[in-house]
Design goal:
The chain is built from 16 helices and 2 strands. The longest helix has 28 residues. It has a two-stranded antiparallel sheet. It is an all-alpha fold. InterPro entries: DUF382, PSP_pro-rich, U2_snRNP_Complex_Component.
Length: 462
């Protein structure tokens, strides 16, 4: 029977909980697998993916989870019996004297009778606290200080506000409260100086200057083991100080032979600009520009020379960084063939129109005329001339200048009407306003009818 029971227990599989517990890593194994073992906690081994969790915890600028997440008791339960201090005004507000004024007003109200208190409640008086507004303005806009706040990633825990802030503290600086607590008389050393002279300076602060150990003692103090004495400085067999200049006899750097002199000149100051150097550099640059191109191995081979006759020189500037001679800022619109031909040559700013003599005609006629036939054959490109192509209702009439001289006003109007009729037939060239005119006419007639009806009703009433 016993053998059967043993066989049953052997065949019985392990539960999933026991399997997870057997496959779980220990804290020591997990610390060996990660880069930063100091972030490993005893609860990290039970995570679904411990390596990923520790990678996130050790990542830069990661804010840790508050430590009370796994605590059994409630958060801040230990602060129940601690008395909460009363609220105090910030120092920059208390300096205005408003707190003393309020205390005086409250003391006066406490001494008032019940009848006066009731009268004050029904008819309160204003302006009890008379404070200088300039002083109040300076308190908030000049002397206001930033309240103490926690830094990035700094978590709060119970009793943190009662701890001493060590950011402003420096090793070796004794506060007046500490001097009073240790009962150190004036010009007396701290009680741990004798032990430091015997065992050496603290290894955690190798650059710390300690009077009586590696720096001179203050003026008026004496060496010795009497009350108020600074003991005996540590010396070697040749009576030389072990840890530094205790007696203050060694020359400082820059005063004597020992040590290199300190250069106190400003290293970031700009050098003064000299006109002579600029002129020389300009002359050199001009000479460099005038120099001909080198011949050996730099000029292009025969048959590949540039058409302008200038020898091409290998540029030392990287490709795509050369400054172009001409920049085209206008849009690449389709140009006429004449413009394409003219773009190759030099552009002229204007064109001279030849003058010719004519007979005086009309009241305001002129005896001088201009031959514009040359200009009409080759139109001058005008800036923004392509805007006329977008206008749908415009009528273009092209008339030769010679025909315009003998043409009367009626002939000109007739030609304009003919061109306007042609543009009307083009779909989309002119808008149709007939529907709008008919609608406005209908509205106007309707309003006139209503006005006449109202006038008749008024006359009937009278």
């Amino acid at each position: 029977m016993a053998s059967e029971a043993d066989s049953e227990t052997e065949k019985k599989p392990l539960s999933k909980k026991k399997q997870r517990k057997m496959n779980r890593l220990t804290v020591a194994e997990l610390k060996q697998l990660v880069k930063k073992p100091e972030v490993v906690e005893w609860t990290d081994v039970t995570a679904a993916d411990p390596r990923l969790l520790l990678h996130l915890k050790s990542y830069r600028n990661t804010v840790p989870i508050p430590i009370h997440w796994s605590a059994k008791r409630d958060y801040l339960q230990g602060k129940r019996g601690i008395e909460k201090p009363p609220f105090q005004l910030p120092s920059y507000i208390a300096d205005t004297g408003i707190a003393t004024m309020r205390d005086a007003v409250k003391e006066k109200e406490a001494n008032m009778s019940l009848k006066a208190k009731t009268r004050e409640r029904v008819q309160p008086k204003m302006g009890k606290v008379d404070i200088d507004y300039q002083k109040l303005h300076d308190a908030f806009f000049k002397f206001q200080t930033k309240p103490p706040v926690t830094g990035f990633g700094e978590m709060y825990y119970e009793g943190k506000e009662f701890e001493t802030s060590l950011k402003e503290k420096r090793p070796g600086d004794l506060s007046p409260e500490l001097v009073e607590a240790l009962s150190i008389p004036p010009l007396a050393p701290p009680p741990w100086l004798i032990s430091m002279q015997r065992f050496g300076p603290p290894p955690s602060y190798p650059t710390l200057r300690i009077p009586g150990l590696n720096s001179p003692i203050p003026e008026g103090a004496q060496w010795g083991f009497h009350p108020g004495g600074w003991g005996k400085p540590p010396l070697d067999e040749y009576n030389r100080p072990l840890y530094g200049d205790v007696f203050g006899v060694l020359p400082k750097a820059g005063d004597g032979e020992m040590g290199e002199p300190i250069d106190k000149e400003l290293w970031g100051e700009l050098e003064p600009e000299e006109e002579e150097e600029e002129s020389e550099s300009e002359e050199e640059s001009e000479e460099e520009e005038v120099e001909p191109a080198p011949i050996d191995g730099v000029q292009t081979p025969s048959g590949l020379e540039t058409p302008s006759g200038m020898a091409s020189v290998v540029s030392t500037i990287a490709g795509g960084l050369e400054t172009p001679d001409f920049l085209e800022l206008r849009k690449n619109t389709a140009r006429a063939p004449s413009e394409a031909v003219e773009s190759n040559g030099p552009r002229s700013l204007y064109q001279v129109v030849p003058e010719k003599q004519t007979s005086v005609r009309g009241l305001m006629g002129s005896e001088r005329g201009y031959d514009v036939s040359a200009v009409a054959s080759a139109p001058i490109p005008v800036l923004g001339d392509d805007r006329g192509t977008k206008r749908k209702n415009s009528v273009d009439v092209s008339i030769d200048a010679e025909q315009l001289e003998g043409m009367s006003e009626e002939d000109l109007r007739r030609k304009y009407d003919a061109n306007s009729r042609n543009t009307v037939n083009v779909p989309g060239s002119k808008e149709d306003f007939s529907d709008m005119v008919a609608e406005n006419t209908k509205k106007r007639l309707k309003m006139e009818k209503e006005r006449g009806r109202d006038k008749k009703t008024k006359e009937f009433k009278f």
